[in-house]
Amino acid sequence: MVDTQIITRGVRDKRVLDAMLKVPRHLFTPDDLAGMAYSDMALPSAEDQTISQPYMVAVMTELLELKGDEKVLEIGTGSGYQTAILAELAARVYTIERLSPLAGMAKKILGELGYTNIDFTVGDGTRGWPDAAPFQAILVTAAAPKVPPPLFEQLAEGGNIVIPVGSKASQRLIKGKKHKGKLIPEEHTFCAFVPLLGEYGF
Ligand code: SAH
């Protein structure tokens, strides 16, 4: 998976590649799809949601530019696969999921894998996690109509937010750096995520 889908398409950050070699993706898929866990595609998960394509996980993570000492906020825990990658690469991960069954399953698997640097909550992630802010990096794994203002507020100066922005049908992956209190946006690949629902979402 890492050689043929991720390195060939240009992901170079060695720490990201190592994390993707280490985390067992088949533990995060529904049991009947475990055989496809390392395929080049997004997979359906419980509650009509999706587990992002491995390449998309790699690109989004690389764009965050994690060095290891960050507090990261993730919106859309889903299966918890992306959460595990972030937990490998940052000091602490705060992850928010609106669907409690998904959060429960992710918490269980990530606990069994031995991660102790992840905080979980169930709720509307478009409001962020004010009590734990500021975050040096924020990752949104669902499609947003715009960058939710609370997330921008909770991003530390110099930090990066990575988020798919567009319509419900298709989006552009945006990386925004907070520089002198302003968001400097950079456009990346086109993508199609499930919608971010909530106060500042769809
Ligand atoms: N990154 C995960 C999930 C991607 S699917 C994975 O690869 O498995 C996007 C997830 O975002 C879904 O689980 C959906 O329920 C969740 N979501 C959508 N809107 C949300 C919101 N406002 N707050 C938190 N989670 C949300």
Can you describe what's shown?
Helix content is 27%, strand content 28%. It has helices at 2-7, 14-22, 54-64, 81-89, 100-112, 149-154; strands spanning 43-44, 50-51, 71-75, 92-97, 118-122, 135-140, 155-166, 171-179, 182-191. By secondary structure, the protein is of the alpha/beta class. It is globular. Strands 5-4-3-6-7-8-9 form a seven-stranded mixed beta sheet. The protein binds S-adenosyl-L-homocysteine (SAH). Residues 45, 49-52, 75-76, 78-79, 81-82, 96-99, 102, 124-126, 141-142, 194, 196-198, 201 line the site of S-adenosyl-L-homocysteine.
Could you provide a short overview of the structure?
The protein is an alpha/beta fold. Helix content is 27%, strand content 28%.
Protein traits:
alpha/beta, Rossmann fold, 7-stranded mixed beta sheet, 9 strands, 27% helix
Give me the secondary-structure topology.
Layout: H1 2-7, H2 14-22, E1 43-44, E2 50-51, H3 54-64, E3 71-75, H4 81-89, E4 92-97, H5 100-112, E5 118-122, E6 135-140, H6 149-154, E7 155-166, E8 171-179, E9 182-191
Parallel strand pairs: 3-4, 3-6, 4-5, 6-7
Antiparallel strand pairs: 1-2, 7-8, 8-9
S-adenosyl-L-homocysteine binds next to strand 2, helix 4 and strand 4.
Question: Any ligands, ions or cofactors bound here, and which?
Answer: S-adenosyl-L-homocysteine
CATH level 1 name: Alpha Beta
CATH superfamily: Vaccinia Virus protein VP39
* Helical content band: 25-40%
Assign the CATH topology. Rossmann fold
Report strand %. Answer: 25-35%
Biggest sheet, spatial arrangement of strands: 5-4-3-6-7-8-9
Class per helix and strand makeup: alpha/beta
Helix-strand topology string:
HHEEHEHEHEEHEEE
What CATH architecture would you give? 3-Layer(aba) Sandwich
Parts with pLDDT < 50 across at least 5 consecutive residues: none
How far apart lie the N and C ends? 33 Å
Oligomer: single chain
Mean pLDDT: 97
The total domain count is 1
